[in-house]
Amino acid sequence: MERDQRCWLVAEAPEKLGSLVARLEALGWTVTRPKAPFTSRCLEDDEACLVGLVQLDGMTGDPLRQLESLLLHSRCLWFAILPDDALEDAARRSLVATLCHGFIEPGVDGAELGYLMRRAAALVQLQRQELALHRRTAPLSADIAEYEMVGTAPAMRTLFQTIRKVAAVDAPVLINGESGTGKELTAVAIHERSPRVSGVFHAINCGALPDQLIQSELFGHEKGAFTGAAQRKIGRIEAADAGTLFLDEIGDLPLEQQVNLLRFLETRRIQRVGGLSEIAVDVRILAATHVNLEEAVREGRFREDLYHRLNVLQVKVPALRDHPEDIEILARYFFERFIREKPGRLKGFSRDALQAMRDYSWPGNIRELINRVRRAMVMCDNRLIQPEDLGIERRQGPASGLSLCQARDEAERDALVAALERNAHRVQAAARELDVSRVTIYRLMEKHGLARPMSEAPA
Ligand SMILES: Nc1ncnc2c1ncn2[C@@H]1O[C@H](COP(=O)(O)OP(=O)(O)OP(=O)(O)O)[C@@H](O)[C@H]1O
Question: Does residue 142 sit within a domain?
């Protein structure tokens, strides 16, 4: 073995381990002892060690809980030092089972100790090399650090370039893309690259504002303007003065408010509800839609003049299926982000899981990917996430050996799931998209065993 490798020794009663330490030193290990209390903070230089030994016999209660946090945060492999009968204690047993690589008796002989330590050190080195490789090849390119937008596929590179270009000017931008593709993230990225970066970024979901409140939300109101207007209220447009206003789901803005918005875009002035004077507001407008606005214009649901005002610059955010190269990179990125919530044995994705993710069509795009990875991390009982943890073990593509009735059922379920994902589980919107009633959506959700959103009830 290499000489001068370092290992931790965490022990409440180190005097009992004198001969074990002597054996480790004779094997070429430098033993480093952190001081109690044994919290995650006491392993200052964790990277310098490969293996840790923790004395567990006799340890209970709070010190044991502190140890748990220490082992959770460490990147070493740990051996518990304890006599076999010490495993009868349930709390100790659970700590060893979930957080340790193995356990050894205090009197373990030098040859066995040397072998175990060598193998563990080799495994840690391998794990660290793998991790470093992923960090180099996976997401953290300059683009990502800049926008926290992950993606290295050509479609994403084009998006990053477009973001840079449109950020430099002050004209309105219309951001198109399916639900969950990253339209809001794109808007934030444009703002952060723009000369308005020191101003605020305000986002409004036009589909979520109640019709009767929308005008006062956008433009504000004066005290006494209507029943209940007890105070003057600054609207969202005015609040974004000198910054950027992001109008999400612009296609859902009622026609009456489209006129008001158009007037603002033309004059750059607003009038609060019940107000007499006009106020100049300097705001850059970014708008996003997942519906085809040209079609909405043709059907008379969206004003053509407003459409042209907003559509000065366009950004298209690609659907996840249009940059499948990024699926694995994104999945690993979110895994790293959420692993802090569930540290422990979980190490990553199995090959089957990666393949299943590549084969899946991701109707809910990146938002769906986030939800599935997060759920899988909770559900997974092994070291590697399996396709069933992601809930996508279902066959993709044309069915084989199904009766017509079964195939219809599958297609119906897939269409329903996809519409719900695309519409952030809003039943009303999914019903509109599929051209059926809300009641039908509820009936189909029940038929296919899909959970009903908490906030919605059947009509
Ligand atoms: N390229 C990306 N890299 C990392 N995270 C991303 C990326 N794109 C989207 N996300 C994440 O996916 C989620 C959905 O993104 P976002 O809200 O921007 O999508 P959207 O298109 O605006 O959705 P909706 O149409 O429902 O409003 C967010 O949590 C966002 O941070």
Answer: no
